[in-house]
Amino acid sequence: MPGVIIRGRAAWVAGLVFGLILVIIGVVIGSVKGWAWSSGLGGWLVGVGAAFAVFGGIFLIMSIATKGQTD
Q: Is 12 exposed, middle or buried, given 0-12, 13-18 or 19+ CB atoms closer than 10 A?
């Protein structure tokens, strides 16, 4: 589907938001079903969401600091 690919700062913001959404969903699932970090879905979602949020935030800061040269 053309037009679905996000580039530049919008991609880093989307990654950051997606990561935060995954963290919130993971925390909700973990609090309802109990935490099991080794095999639980809640722990998995928190870990993956945190990774998305951290990398999205780092690359967004780099993009702003270099005025878009790292996009």
A: buried
- What is the C-alpha separation between 16 and 48, in angstroms, rounded? 12
pLDDT tens-digit profile of 8-50?
888 889 899 999 999 999 888 877 776 655 557 788 888 899 9
Task: Name the token pair of 11.
Answer: 């991609």
Burial (CB count <10 Å: 0-12, 13-18, 19+), residue 52: buried
Q: Which residue has the tokens 């990561």?
A: 19
Tokens linked to 70 = 């790292």
Note the pLDDT of residue 55. Answer: 92
pTM of the entire structure? 0.78
Residues 58/15, Cβ–Cβ less than 8 Å: no
